[in-house]
Every structure is written in C-alpha cells, then in structure tokens.
UniProtKB/TrEMBL annotation:
UniProt xrefs under CDD domains: Peptidase_M17
Keywords: Aminopeptidase, Hydrolase, Manganese, Protease
Family (UniProt): Belongs to the peptidase M17 family.
Record-annotated Cytosol aminopeptidase domain positions: 315-322
Cited PROSITE patterns: CYTOSOL_AP
InterPro entries named in the record: Leucine_aapep/pepB, Macro_dom-like, Peptidase_M17_C, Peptidase_M17_N_1
Pfam families for this protein: Peptidase_M17, Peptidase_M17_N_1
Stated name of the protein: Leucyl aminopeptidase family protein
GO molecular function terms listed in the Swiss-Prot or TrEMBL record: aminopeptidase activity
C-alpha cells in the first residue's frame, strides 16, 4: 500500500528546481510585467488568464521549461477547492519544482499537502507505465516530514477503500491492520468467528455469521500505558449486500467502500503513530461481511448487545450501527479520554451534506470546538449535526430497548447517531458519518476512495496532546 506513490515533499537545494509562479486571476498583467518580454508574449499567445486549474510552461533552452505559470484563480475559486495546487500537481511533467510565490503558513501547508495527495495513483489492477516523477520542494516553513506521514495515512485509507471486496474481506482487513501495526511497533490481535460469542461481542457475530468469511473484532494498541487514552472505532463492513433486506444492484455498486470507517481510522492511526503523538492509542474495528444465507439475521429479530441492551432489527441493511454498538461498548469500558468513531453509516447524511462534507455528532462542547478548530486548521471540512433528544423516541420500539432502523426515514443520520450514543456511556465521544469516496476527480482528490475527517481529528489530537 502506498509504497509506489510519492509521499514526501523534498528538502533539496533549489538550484535545479523549476520555479512555480502562482498567478491570480485579474493579476495577470502585473505578473507578466516581471517576466522577460518573450515569456509574457508566450503567455498571452496561449491564452493564459490565471484561471484556477490553468497552467502554462514557459520554454527555456534545450526544450525544457524554465518556469511554470500556475493559475491561482480568485479568492472565491480557492475557497471552493481545498487543494488549489492539486490540479497542476496531478498533471505536472516529470521534474522537481519549487514554489516561487510566497504564501502564508496555512496556504503553503495546503499547497504542499495538495501536491502529495494529487500524486496518488491506485494501479494495483492495471497494466500501466509508472507515473512520472514530479516532486515539490517543501515551501519555506512547511514541515515536509509531517506532511509526508499525513499523506501516507491518506494513501493507506484510499488504498484500502479502493481495493475490491474479493481482495478486501475481514481477514484481509486484519492483515492490513497487522502490517500497519508491525511498522510502528503496535500490538494487533483479533477475535474471530464463534470466539466473538465467547467474548460477549454478539452483534458483531450476528451481522457477520452469514458470510463464508468469518467476522472478527480487530484491535490495535500502541503507546505508553500511562499516556492519555485515545480510542478509534471504525466500521469495517467489507461488503454490504443489505442482508435479507437486499439492496438493489445500484445500491450495491459502491459497497466495497462500506469499510471506509475502518480504513479511515487505520489511516489516522498511521498518522498518530508516525508522528509519535504522546497518547495510548487503541483502534477497534468490527470487520464483517453482511451477506445472505440460511443463518442470516432476519427483520424482526431481537438481539442482545454486549451492553445488555436489546435491539429490534427492523432492517438488516442497518447493520453498521449494530457492529459499532458492541465495539463502542468495549471502547467505553476502558474509560478513555476520548472515543472517535468513523463510519460510512447513512445515506441521510449524504442527502443533508453531500459527498464532500462529513457529518460530525458529539454532545461534548469542548470536543466539538477542538474538532472545529482542527478542521479549519487542516483544511479538512466537517459539519456538526445535532444529537437532537426529541428524536430519541424514534429509536425506542415497543418490543425491545432500541430499534436499528426507525420507520419513516426522517432524520436518519441523527437517529443513527442517537443509537450509537446509547453505547458510549459517559465517555467523551464524537461520531463521524463519512462518505469515504470522491465521485469525480478534483484537485488533490482523485476519483475513488477518500480519507475524510482524519486530518481534522489529527489536528485536534496534536492540539490537545502535542507531539
């Protein structure tokens, strides 16, 4: 994973690097006034305007580019794109580049990270030439080592989500966690199959038992025992047929990404461990395949969770919150300082916020403020939705303590989050309902699996605990 794709920004000398001049739309003439007359004429002849996404190489001796003009658009255009340099980074000819235009610290950081994320390629299943080597020297004031670790964490998440379900079942997800753990000296273990019942993880077992690929609870532990405890929980539904409430063909089309929460927490764990944050990290991943067979759970079944609460299954396609319930209960038993869970949980969150904006839920105001600050500082957007207590009644059926799929379909992301809240006790907790996918190529965000909210969480943890 990620090993074949550039994940560092260089710190070499500038001598051989091609300068990149960022040209704002509306500031073309001022920029051209600083160039030799033949280069200015070349830019005008080729219709360069400074529009965001535009770029133009200025020829030098020997047929190589002497300078690259990169359209920087206007402030409104840059607000619409998280990584405005990503468009050029994805298309850059082979070579080494340096930013000649001075940027503020946050803009420089986003430009360098956008470069790395735009260089991502997933070509495991394609016969293709290797991507050309295009490197950016770290802009002044940018920590290239840190950005490399962050980018690699994003790559880990993207690779896991992009891998098709035939090669990314529960066992393969465990193998991926073990490789990440081995790299950082973490301890990784798994409870598999019927052992889940012996260890009182019944909901994880029930959801996954219909698959030929055994369900499991994967656990990673890292860091000093006496450090502040941080627990990450990720939904690892490696493929979701919907169970007996079977999805349509169109509904199953992207269900290889239903383990996107697990992929995201593994990417975040890589960042935390790679940056050596002074925490005791615990990662819990309920890894299952929601399949159909004679022993599949049925609509109307009543299940007892690890916590002792009973759950009426009104839709077998609302399985993610079931496996998370047991994992969150297990997480809360250790009373960590914070629990963060990630899940590709509801279509309702996408209807409300679209594919690019993850929903975040918490009733801890200090945690909400820290996450909002982390999201802004890392250009990794999240949007808080309410844990509205008035909807608690919707998740309380007559025959059990909880309903996994309230009828009516309204406020689906909120009722799912309220369901999860029942399993975290008094813990400081935040839940992220992510999409985990980019529907189209955007600067720094190629089409395919994507890592959402992890950098915001990392920034929050760095702010709280340092490095």
């Amino acid at each position: 994973m990620a090993g074949e794709t550039e994940t560092t920004v260089g710190e070499a000398e500038n001598g051989e690097a091609v300068p990149l001049t960022l040209v704002e739309q509306g500031g073309l003439e001022a920029a051209l006034g600083d160039l030799p007359s033949d280069h200015a004429a070349w830019a005008r002849t080729n219709g360069f305007t400074g529009r965001l996404g535009q770029w133009l190489g200025l020829p030098g001796a020997g047929g190589v580019f002497e300078r690259i003009l990169v359209g920087w658009g206007d402030a409104a255009a840059r607000r619409r794109e998280i990584f405005p340099l990503g468009g050029f980074a994805a298309a850059a000819p082979a070579g080494t580049y340096r930013l000649e235009t001075a940027l503020g610290p946050r803009e420089a950081d986003a430009a360098a990270l956008g470069w790395l994320l735009a260089r991502y390629r997933f070509d495991r299943y394609k016969r293709s030439d290797s991507a050309n080597e295009a490197h950016l020297l770290a802009p002044e004031g940018v920590d290239g080592v840190r950005l490399g670790i962050v980018a690699e964490g994003v790559y880990v998440t993207r690779d896991l989500i992009n891998t098709p379900a035939n090669d990314m079942g529960p066992e393969a997800l465990e193998t991926a966690a073990r490789k990440i753990g081995e790299r950082h000296g973490a301890t990784v273990s798994a409870i598999t199959g019927d052992a889940l019942l012996e260890e009182n993880l019944p909901l994880i077992h029930t959801v996954g038992r219909a698959s030929a690929r055994a369900p499991r609870l994967i656990e990673l532990a890292w860091g000093p025992e006496d450090a502040p405890r941080v627990t990450l929980v990720g939904k690892g539904v490696c493929f979701d047929t919907g169970g007996l409430d079977l999805k349509s063909a169109a509904g199953m089309h992207l269900m290889k990404k239903d383990m996107g929460g697990a992929a995201t927490v593994l990417g975040l764990a890589h960042m935390v461990m790679g940056l050596a944050l002074p925490v005791r990290l615990r990662v819990l991943i309920p890894a299952v395949e929601n399949a159909v067979s004679g022993n599949a759970m049925r609509p109307g079944d009543v299940l007892r969770a690890r916590s002792g609460l009973t759950v009426e299954v009104n839709n077998t396609d609302a399985e993610g919150r079931l496996v998370l319930a047991d994992a969150l209960t297990l997480a809360a038993e250790e009373a960590p300082e914070v629990i963060l869970d990630m899940a590709t949980l509801t279509g309702a969150a996408r209807v409300a916020l679209g594919p690019e904006l993850p929903a975040m839920f918490t009733d801890d105001e200090a945690l909400a403020a820290d996450l909002a600050h982390g999201a802004a500082a890392s250009t990794d957007p999240i949007w808080r939705l309410p844990l509205w207590p008035g909807y608690e009644r919707l998740i309380e059926p007559k025959v059990a303590d909880l309903d996994n799929a309230p009828s009516g379909g309204m406020a689906g992301a909120i009722t799912a989050a309220l369901f999860l809240k029942r399993f975290v006790g008094e813990s400081s907790w935040a839940h992220f309902d992510v999409y985990g996918w980019s529907n189209a190529d955007r600067p720094g965000r190629p089409k395919g699996g994507d890592c959402q909210a992890a950098r915001a969480c990392l920034a929050m943890l760095e702010s709280r605990y340092g490095r």
